[in-house]
Every structure is written in structure tokens, then in C-alpha cells.
Specification:
Layout lengths: L4 H27 L6 H19 L4 H4 L6 H15 L1 H10 L10 H7 L7 H7 L5 H4 L3 E3 L8 E3 L3 H5 L12 E4 L12 H15 L1 H7 L9 E5 L6 H12 L3 E4 L11 H13 L5 E4 L2 H4 L9 H19 L4 E5 L15 E4 L5 H11 L12 H7 L4 H17 L6 H13 L24
Parallel strand pairs: 4-7, 4-8, 5-6, 6-7
Antiparallel strand pairs: 1-2, 3-5
Helix pairs in contact: 1-2, 1-5, 4-5, 13-15, 16-17, 16-18, 18-19
Length: 445
């Protein structure tokens, strides 16, 4: 039986965990005032030589991370990941940090483990500084400046590098969006398609531009999709995530916003902490309600609401992963927020030609059609959005299936009539345009 990719990934990193374990046992012996066991020292020298070769040739941990790291940074990352990679090392770290109820190493323990003297301690702190690769690329989480605070690997990092599925795939306040679609399914003007592909560049080439070329890390990237309901904003987000091979999560802000002071920020932190380091795209709908033009602060609640928005913006900008905000009302957005987006794409209502293409794509492909069912005619007949056409195309198919018939203009006319009626307004046959003559009698009730 051939080894899986997860087994191969785990095997390549095994020497790192073995070295961390040996360093832990040698430190424990030193603290007890005992000489270092000769067999442990021999094994450590052998492992050191192997790891030097691996790192020189870009193998193991060195080849798994998105940016070149120094030897010290690789040592720190290995120690921080070790408790998740090999849980027994978490127990070892707890014995080396008495009174600490968690398995992750502190800066103080790392200084001992890696035998860093006081004169070189500055190098360790520099490796953990906010501007360091370990922090800029979201590899290690540092909670405060206290040398006894635990250092943790980014959420999901260890599982990803070892080829394991994440232990907890859920995101607080978010739901997965499963739309199977590709670029050929999008019906948009060529310049909008180009802008969507440009957004992908910010994701796929970030390591080169930021890591190799030294470009500024702007976080994200963050895109704003604007346009009326049903014009394909979520559909386009799904196409992008499918191109990446990542999941798309729609964030339900109603589940995150709380009337209790401080709770909204905590909920947002849980969401972004859970998403940190995981390959996924986050989508926030109705961005206009969040980032609307700011008015005067008239009461404490207004001031607190502004604080919540500021906190959300800060988390979005610092998040190392793509975020897509959608809005139906671009004019309601505060212009001051525009600079925060790497890409802004307007989704127009489809013209007659685009509507004809949408009818062709959205009618069930294997369904029989009557000879007079002309998608170009349907596109010219009624001014619908892509979302309207999707619903009407399926409804027409169900009406035809109920009659054991091929889909015809009468089925589509009734389906479009029902779709237009969802708005709750009074309808007249004229609303169907040239499709009106095909509306079955009795449908006006």
C-alpha cells in the first residue's frame, strides 16, 4: 500500500519533532543537575546534521512554509508546532513549565530549549517581532509581550503542513456556500471578468510579491462587490474560491453582533481566529449596513457602534486571507473606506444579450425544449437579473415536468410571472413584454 501525501508530509517533518523532544529531555536533565546522557547527545548531533542538510536543500519544514526563514525562526516554529504535531511533546513542555495549564512553549522556555544566552536573547525577540516573517505571514500567534505567555502556531497551520484535516472545520457565525461553478458560467462584461481575475492575482502571487520581492503586505486581500440583488456577486465569489480549490464561507453578522458591550468584538475575534491560517474565502454581505456614511455621534450606543465597525475593519485588514464584501447600495458606503479595498467590482444588471446567455446556461441542459423556445427572445422579452432567470428557468422546468412535456414558452411565461410577483407589487400582462401572449389563461389570479 502506497503512503498517502499526509504520511509523506508527516515523515518529512518527523526529525524536527525528534530534535525538539531531545532538547526537552536534555533541558530536564540539566535542571536536575545531571550530566547530559551521551546517547541523547549522539542522537542530537545526528539529527542536527540531517536537519542542516534538509534546510540547505529546502526540504522538510523549510520547504513547507510560504517564506524563507532563518535557522532561528525555523527552530522557533518547530518548537511552537511540536505540541500539536506530537501531543506527547505538549506534556513534556508542561513538565518544563510548572503551573502552566497549557502545552505551548513560552519565550522563556524557548530561550532555555534553544540554549540562547542573555546576549543573544534579542535575536529571539526579533524573530517574534510583529515585523518578522513568523508574524507577517501568520505562522505564529504571540499574545502580549510577557516572556511567560504561550506562543501558539496559527490556527490550522500544523494540520495543513502535516496534510491533516482540521480538527474543527466550523467557523463561528459563518456558513459554507456550496456553488459549483467556473469561469465559463459567469455572464459579465469582459472588463468585470478581468477585474475578478486580477483579484485572484493578489492571492496567488502574494508570496512572490511580498515574500520574495519585498512588497508591502496589505493583508487580505479585500474586494468589494457592488450591484443589485441577483447580479451574481456571490456566484462570482464562488467561482474565485473554486478556482483556488478553497471553501467559501458567508458570514452572518446577525449571529456576531451583540447588544452587550464587548461581546461583538469577542465574537469577531473568534471568527477571525478560527479562520486564521486556513485556506478559505470569507464573504460579508450587506457591507453598506456596516460601512455607511458616518453621522454625528448622538449617544453612547452610536459611539460603541463605531467602535465595533473599527474593530471589524482592523480584523479584516490584518487577516491573512481573502475577504469579499458585497453591497446592493454602493452610494451608501463612506468614501473613506474605498482605499481599504484592493479591488472594487461593479456588477451591472444584464443587458438583453447577457440575459439570453443566462437563459441558455440556466435552463436544465438535458431537459427537452419545444422548438419555439428561443433564449435570445427570452432575453429581450423581460428585464430580469441573473438570480431571477435562475429561479424562473427552474420553475419552468418543473412546470413542464409536471405535464410530462418539453419546456415551452408557456411554462417559462408562467414561471417569469411568478418570479415577478415575488416583489409584492401589482402586475399587469405588459410586465411580461413580448412574452405576455404566452402566459396561460388563469395565471392572473
Amino acid at each position: 500500500m502506497n503512503p498517502s501525501s499526509a504520511d509523506i508530509a508527516a515523515g518529512l517533518l518527523t526529525p524536527e519533532w525528534e530534535r525538539v523532544e531531545l532538547l526537552g529531555h536534555l533541558l530536564a536533565a540539566s535542571r536536575r543537575g545531571r550530566p547530559a546522557p551521551a546517547d541523547l547527545l549522539d542522537r542530537l548531533r545526528t539529527l542536527q546534521g540531517r536537519l542542516e542538510q534538509d534546510r540547505r536543500h529546502g526540504r522538510g519544514l523549510c520547504g513547507a512554509v510560504p517564506s524563507p526563514l532563518s535557522d532561528l525562526e525555523l527552530d522557533v516554529l518547530a518548537c511552537v508546532m511540536a505540541p500539536e504535531a506530537e501531543p506527547r511533546l505538549g506534556w513534556l513542555f508542561q513538565t518544563l513549565q510548572p503551573g502552566t495549564p497549557q502545552p505551548y512553549p513560552s519565550v522563556a522556555l524557548l530561550q532555555e530549549l534553544l540554549d540562547i544566552d542573555a546576549g543573544a536573547a534579542g535575536d529571539l525577540y526579533a524573530a517574534l517581532a510583529e515585523s518578522s516573517p513568523l508574524r507577517r505571514f501568520g505562522l505564529v500567534d504571540v499574545d502580549g509581550a510577557d516572556p511567560f505567555q504561550p506562543l501558539r502556531p496559527a490556527s490550522g497551520l500544523t494540520a495543513r503542513l502535516l496534510g491533516r484535516p482540521p480538527v474543527n472545520g466550523n467557523l463561528p457565525g459563518a456558513v459554507p456556500v456550496d456553488i459549483r461553478a467556473g469561469w465559463d458560467d459567469l455572464v459579465l462584461p469582459p472588463d468585470r471578468l478581468a477585474m475578478l481575475r486580477e483579484f485572484l492575482l493578489w492571492i496567488t502571487h502574494k508570496e512572490r510579491v511580498v515574500g520574495q520581492w519585498g512588497g508591502q503586505d496589505c493583508g487580505g486581500p479585500v474586494a468589494l462587490f457592488c450591484g443589485p440583488s441577483g447580479t451574481g456577486k456571490t456566484f462570482a465569489a464562488a467561482v474565485i474560491t473554486n478556482q483556488l480549490g478553497w471553501p467559501l464561507y458567508r458570514v452572518d453578522l446577525g449571529r456576531l453582533v451583540s447588544k452587550y458591550i464587548g461581546e461583538t468584538e469577542k465574537n469577531l475575534n473568534r471568527l477571525f481566529d478560527a479562520a486564521h491560517g486556513r485556506p478559505m474565502v470569507l464573504q460579508f454581505d450587506e457591507a453598506d449596513s456596516l460601512f455607511s456614511k458616518r453621522g454625528d455621534v448622538k449617544e453612547a450606543r452610536d459611539r460603541y457602534a463605531n467602535m465595533e465597525v473599527s474593530h471589524l475593519l482592523a480584523r479584516i485588514e490584518s487577516h491573512q486571507g481573502p475577504v469579499i464584501l458585497t453591497t446592493n447600495l454602493r452610494n451608501h458606503l463612506d468614501p473613506a473606506f474605498a482605499r481599504r479595498f484592493q479591488v472594487v467590482v461593479d456588477f451591472p444588471r444584464p443587458d438583453a444579450a447577457a440575459r439570453g446567455l443566462l437563459w441558455e446556461k440556466l435552463l436544465p441542459p438535458r431537459a427537452p425544449r419545444q422548438p419555439n423556445l428561443d433564449c435570445g427572445f427570452l432575453g429581450r422579452a423581460v428585464n430580469l437579473t441573473g438570480g431571477n432567470i435562475r429561479n424562473a428557468a427552474l420553475m419552468g422546468a418543473y412546470l413542464a415536468a409536471d405535464q410530462d412535456a418539453a419546456i415551452g414558452l408557456d411554462h417559462v411565461a408562467l414561471a417569469v410571472w411568478r418570479e415577478l410577483g415575488k416583489d409584492g407589487r401589482e402586475l399587469a400582462r405588459a410586465d411580461l413584454g413580448t412574452l405576455a401572449s404566452h402566459l396561460p389563461e388563469g395565471a392572473l389570479c
